[in-house]
Design a protein that fits this description.
Layout (H helix, E strand, L loop, with lengths): L5 E14 L2 E14 L3 E5 L6 H8 L7 E6 L2 E2 L5 H11 E4 L11 H11 L7 H10 L15 H12 L6 E5 L7 H18 L2 E5 L3 H4 L4 E6 L2 E6 L1 H14 L1
Parallel strand pairs: 3-8, 3-9, 6-7, 7-8
Antiparallel strand pairs: 1-2, 1-4, 4-5, 9-10
Helix pairs in contact: 3-5, 5-6
């Protein structure tokens, strides 16, 4: 049986930020491949480059050097407009802070997302179907501040699904949630990965959250430290700790 193709790939990826006269390296030669249909967690301490990597994978930021391939397309070879079209067609984003428009209803938030992504107008029934996936059809006419934080994040996930993206990039999607709501969101992402075969890349600080994924990429100081399943990464650490 053939292996799934790499839907996301980086080659010698580097990102350097300039602060005054000082160059601050955020990514230092990242080479990763994420297969179609994988659920991958990216872990590491604050400042290690996780969010920078996710932004570059999603075409929201350009690298200083190196290459990013999204479904085989080298983002360095396309115009800004083409990169935007590819992002809107292929990628959905879920952020820690939800980024919902608080003055609009849940339905309107999703309708606007469809317009931003350049898709056709979405009907009320279609919005309801998206909300059914996150088990919130009954909150169609609510405004975000009338929802719990867990419900707001689930609406944000429904919004990310508005164009049925092949890839979902999630930046600390449970960072503002309690344990019960975190579990609901993680199970939802796992269901999307398993049932709809959507590729999910999730940044998390939480090893329990990372256990929901197929593979973990550990980062440190802008580099990939290791990758494998949670069990594969934890067992060597435990053995080292016991040896001491």
């Amino acid at each position: 049986m053939s292996q799934p193709a790499a839907i996301l790939k980086t080659v010698a990826l580097r990102k350097v930020y300039r602060t005054g006269s000082l160059d601050v390296p955020a990514l230092q030669g990242i080479d990763i491949e994420i297969k179609e249909g994988e659920f991958v967690s990216i872990m590491g301490p604050s400042g290690c480059g996780k969010t920078t990597l996710l932004q570059i994978l999603g075409g929201l930021s350009r690298p200083t050097s190196g290459h990013v391939f999204v479904d085989g397309v080298d983002l360095a070879d396309v115009s800004d407009a083409e990169r935007t079209r590819l992002r809107c067609k292929k990628i959905g984003f879920v952020f820690q802070r939800f980024n919902l428009l608080t003055t609009l209803t849940v339905q309107a938030n999703i309708e606007i997302a469809r317009q931003i992504y350049g898709g056709p107008l979405i009907s009320r029934d279609e919005v309801g179907d998206l909300l059914e996936i996150v088990r919130l059809r009954h909150k169609l006419d609510y405004k975000p501040l009338e929802l719990s934080v867990g419900e707001q994040q689930r609406v944000a996930i429904a919004r990310a699904l508005v164009n049925n993206p092949a890839i979902i990039l999630a930046d600390e999607p449970t960072g503002n949630l309690d344990s019960r709501n975190s579990e609901q969101v993680l199970r939802l992402l796992s269901d999307l990965n398993r049932e709809k075969k959507q590729t999910i890349v999730m940044i998390t600080h939480n090893p329990a959250a990372a256990e929901m994924s197929n593979r973990v990429i550990e980062m440190l100081d802008g580099q990939v430290l290791s990758h494998g399943t949670v069990a594969e990464l934890v067992e060597p650490e435990q053995a080292h700790s016991q040896a001491r």
